[in-house]
């Protein structure tokens, strides 16, 4: 468990493992680092140092009610600040949904800080209609029904964390509605991902994990990344729940990818 200050705000993170093979994992929208409570220790057991971070407005980090503080470029700058705080020049960077898009943003604007990318469920061109259709009512509900959501938040925060999958869902409503509203407003006002022309310049090794039958994260977006990024490979999950219910296969895919990413550096160290 750790934290640092970013432009006057507290950013919190957890660390699993130790060593030089650093991977930073970023959660989905209005979720938190607990998404990786199982994946973090699993990767650490295989020789990686895993940092799971709560972006500003999420989880244990500060949650100011100011939409101007929330955008993809600002989230990417928080990852740069995290690496600076850790004293690291670069790391494998990635995550799920929002986290995937933040990793792409970092690779476009600060490519030297991203050694490689792990992209699960990216939200790109083919997802825009579904995202607008889903999050617009959520935003209106948070705004118009704030007293109700405040009560729901208070009640659900009293429920202890006992079930991994249930807690992922409950974390959506455990948060106070004001900051969640600000996060959504800030993101919807800006670009949700780098443009295609920018993405095509990303040269890092990239593992893309796409899910079928998921309208918010259409598999076609994952396939599009495979075509755009020259050093990407695509793994198809059986469903959106595979990594949460039966993670062994996808854990192995990610671990093999990390072994491949770090192999050149390890060989150089061994050579002297």
Can you describe what's shown?
The chain is α/β, with parallel strands linked by helices and 272 residues long. It has one domain: Alpha/Beta hydrolase fold, catalytic domain (Rossmann fold), CATH 3.40.50. The chain has helices spanning 39-45, 72-86, 98-109, 128-144, 146-157, 164-174, 177-189, 196-199, 219-228, 242-245, 248-271; strands at residues 2-6, 9-16, 22-26, 49-53, 91-96, 114-120, 205-210, 232-236. The chain has an 8-stranded mixed β-sheet with strand order 1-2-4-3-5-6-7-8, sandwiched between helices. Strand 5, helix 3 and strand 6 (114-120) form a beta-alpha-beta unit. The longest helix is centred in the last third of the chain and has 24 residues, at 248-271. The radius of gyration is 18 Å and the shape is globular. The mean pLDDT is 93.
